[in-house]
Amino acid sequence: MARTEFPLARAGMSIGLLGGSFDPAHKGHAHITREALKRFGLDRVWWLVSPGNPLKEHGPAPLAERIERACAVMRHPHVDVTDIETRLGTRVTARTLAALRTRYRGVRFVWLMGADNLAQIHRWQDWRWIMDHVPVGVLARPGQQISACMSPAARIYRPYRIPGSQSQALAQAEAPAWCFVNVPMVDISSSEIRAAGKWTAAQSREGEH
Ligand SMILES: Nc1ncnc2c1ncn2[C@@H]1O[C@H](COP(=O)(O)OP(=O)(O)OP(=O)(O)O)[C@@H](O)[C@H]1O
Ligand SMILES: O=C(O)c1ccc[n+]([C@@H]2O[C@H](COP(=O)([O-])O)[C@@H](O)[C@H]2O)c1
């Protein structure tokens, strides 16, 4: 369900944060969210529907539109679709994470992302702060395996990698800690949907390709 305020969370809970443009949300997002809940033993996942990726030149569709679609795509009792970054007034992930850690003392946050973002994270603002302060869960994405595993972030933080077989330990681990899980993959992207010029309900439902 969509949150119109900051979600509640108790100290000790582990919450995965999936940030994204969600322009639009699709079944790949829903799929990695379900896998992350299982593989990283998370209590909840919050989708952070971004006001706009700091590295993308063109702004996304209006936030309300993207949130509405995200809510249609992701229906799960342990997942919240949120506009937290707009409420915090930040679109830079390191700032978002710092603000959430202050606001939710005692909550264990895990940053979630697809393998394509592990390949690029070294271009994000204060990316080393993210890696040094928040456990990171990376989910396989078609065609991204090699670039992710050879990336600067993967190389620099190799000593802190938790094997996929121990993924349940990630949320309780002290950062730096990251884990790549080789989950079954769903080959779909928002850019592909935008290029096709339409969004259909079938693109949102898991199991339909
Ligand atoms: N099919 C997928 N498999 C694995 N991870 C995915 C998939 N689609 C999106 N993600 C991840 O979800 C997060 C949000 O993705 P985003 O909203 O940018 O969707 P996208 O499909 O990558 O969009 P675009 O094509 O516009 O770049 C990112 O961490 C991204 O890596
Ligand atoms: O903080 C940054 O510099 C930064 C640069 C690029 C992307 N991000 C975040 O990465 C997440 C995925 O972005 P996107 O547009 O690929 O869905 C989203 O939460 C963005 O805010 C963050």
TrEMBL record:
Can you provide one Gene Ontology molecular function annotated for this UniProt record? ATP binding
Q: Which organism is it from?
A: Pontibaca salina
Entry's HAMAP family? NaMN_adenylyltr
What is this protein for, i.e. what is its function? Catalyzes the reversible adenylation of nicotinate mononucleotide (NaMN) to nicotinic acid adenine dinucleotide (NaAD).
Q: What is this protein called?
A: Probable nicotinate-nucleotide adenylyltransferase
The UniProt entry's sequence similarity note says: Belongs to the NadD family.
Keyword terms of this UniProt record: ATP-binding, NAD, Nucleotide-binding, Nucleotidyltransferase, Pyridine nucleotide biosynthesis, Transferase
Q: Which InterPro entries match?
A: Cyt_trans-like (IPR004821), NadD/NMNAT (IPR005248), Rossmann-like_a/b/a_fold (IPR014729)
Could you say which EC number(s) this protein's record lists? 2.7.7.18
Q: Where is the Cytidyltransferase-like domain?
A: 17-195
Check the record and name the CDD domains matching this protein.
NMNAT (cd02165)
**NCBIfam families membership:** nicotinate (nicotinamide) nucleotide adenylyltransferase (TIGR00482), PRK00071.2-2 (NF000843), PRK00071.2-4 (NF000845)
User: Could you tell me the Gene Ontology terms of the biological process aspect for this record?
Assistant: NAD+ biosynthetic process
According to UniProt, the reaction catalysed is: nicotinate beta-D-ribonucleotide + ATP + H(+) = deamido-NAD(+) + diphosphate
Q: In which pathway does it act?
A: Cofactor biosynthesis; NAD(+) biosynthesis; deamido-NAD(+) from nicotinate D-ribonucleotide: step 1/1
Record bears the keyword Nucleotide-binding: yes
SUPFAM superfamilies in the cross-refs = Nucleotidylyl transferase
Establish whether keyword Protein transport is in the entry. Answer: no
